[in-house]
Amino acid sequence: MTKSSSIKTWVRRLLNPEALRYLAADDPEGDRSFAEGAAQVMDKQLDRRQALKAIAGAGAAGAALVQAACAPLGGRSEEAQHRWEEFFKKNYRLMTETERAETVTRLTKLAADDRGGAPHIQTTPAQPGVLFGYAFNISKCKGYQDCVKACIHENNLDRGENMQYIRIFEIENGQQSLASANGSYYHEVPADGHYYLGTQCFHCENPPCVDVCPVGATWKEEDGIVVVDYDWCIGCRYCQAACPYFGRRFNWSAPQVPPESVNREQHYLGNRPRKKGVMEKCTFCIQRTRQGKLPACVEACPTGARVFGNLLDPNSEIRYVLANKKVFRLKEELGTEPKFWYFTD
Amino acid sequence: MSPTHLFQFFGDAFLSATRGRLAYHVWMGGLTFLMLLGAYAYSVQLQEGLIVTGMNDHISWGMYISNFTFLVGLAAAAVMLVLPTYILDDVDFGGAVLIGEGVAVAALVMCLAFVTVDLGGPHRVWHMIPKLGYFNWPRSMLTWDVLVLNGYLALNVMVPFYLLYSRYHGVKPDKRKYVPFVVLSVFWAVGIHLVTAFLYAGLPARPFWHNALLGPRFLASAFAAGPAFILMLLGVIDRFTDYGIRVVIFDKLALIITVAAQINLVMLGSELFVEFYQPTEHAESAVYLFFGLNGHDALVPWIRSAVALNLGATLCLSIHPLRRRRGILLAASTLLFLAVWIEKGMGLVVPGFVPGPLGDVVDYHPSWVEIWVTVGIWAMGFFILSGLVKVAIAIETGRMKAKGGDQEVPTESL
Does the keyword section mention Signal (chain B) (predicted)? Predict the structure, then answer.
């Protein structure tokens, strides 16, 4: 056995053998460079196109070496390797189906370690012929904030900093400007002489937040949902400055969700746990809506003020509202084309 | 430029930068202490997250980005010395221009440091490397800024290095080798500051920033505050080293500062007129800045002092007999520098967020962690600047030169 091939065997043994088998057997057409990266490095049969992928593979090999070195110290080697691979994974949009499956596997295992129960993380893509839209009935909303509560639970929002995607503004009759509204009221509702208006991410057709992101960590999906890749975001908060609707939230500290109240039905681009230093936002409950369910806020609303549906389906309720009600949107002059309308009965 | 020669050069440069009078060691020691404090504060921030700063979802950029914005201007200001010296063949600035470029290098390093400490995930910055990650160029103005800042840093390291290295070996620098880069750096300097202004001006969500005057005003204030800083530095060098700065350099710099400060004031007046003649909803940020809004007035004393300093300093500089007196010139430059630091730092960044897009009015108070990290980065900037200036002076005065005389390294080998 030559020296290089013995090193190769050694590295291969250290790499997760399961991942190798999975890649080779289940996806012959797929991107195998991840598993072959180490082999490529050792064989030095690199062309320029493969070089970068090989570096990723070499990273994994490096992780294997580190964990092997640390093994006598009692390090949890599998977890360490998962974390290493998670750190060096790609932007979600650039991942192959196989890579997506791999990261979901890793995230599931890591989350199971952390929180005592494995989540189910979907990667359900946008469904063809679907463009989501939302309408809010100002006449019906009474400011109960059941939507806010449902959203916090559904989307695993940080309880430590009391993060909320939805804001309900209490506005005096005769007023229209949000500047004169009360965005944080703590009294019995509905208050006399007031009406209520809710905001959240409006999932603009021309989202300024997407344009400004330096690393492409946020984008608009085919079904119109603006999402964030939590593992790709570098936390510069440029998108937060660019959003005209206060639709984005930052994790100023490590988010806290009590393990017993974690919603384990998750989507990669939706309500899976976030970490310190990344952006997040309303995803129209992507983990629910791509399965044909309604967003949690719509389902929770006791007055029926919230309407959600497929803008491309002429028989949908949202299309009925747009066709038959007087609707308006916030800050239309900015040209962002929000897919979130307000209307009155 | 063989490796041995380079090694020798850097060795000598290191010795030159680490040797000096007691005062120099005390100065550098003090800066090191402040850097260590800053590093400790930053370690706290890394551990806990940006929650330890005064920023929040409403005011999501604070002191770090304010200082970053101001320092881009300081870096760009070197062009006001570079342009006359290298391109207009005005030899007057000969001695000062290397100092100006040293200021640019230090300012750019500080810029990059301020952006880095502002990130929520600094360890994920590699996501920005093209191919390896995803570089959202040309859509995102931030990617433009990354390109122009690093490019400008490279230019401002390369040209002075070539000139000093030539002088070190007693060789006349070859104009064909460095003037093209100098010409490039002149356009690049304007570029870095315009791009940084576009970072803000490109956001319709923030009416306070979304105006076409922002870029030109950035340039005017930078060309006032930057040369003002260089003038202060030259004053210190003239006073405390044997590297004499000729009077004519002070005079010319003072003139540049004065004109830029006057243009800056004209633009300020224009801005105030538009905001306050018929105040619209879009003027509320300016109202918050200058008068306070709904009882929130954290920035009012700052911006008013900035305007007062700005007016006072510009007035002093505009009166010839006053400007010609060294003491008054240095004092006015210092005040102008402070005024622009307030106005273009916190006075520009924070009001952009107040009131928020949905009308929220929240005050911003930087936390101690933020302040110490900021102090640490400024100390780092001064540390780098001191070292660079010390080496540059040692070479320019001929104290630091290659052993063995001039014949050893002919021009061709450079």
Answer: no
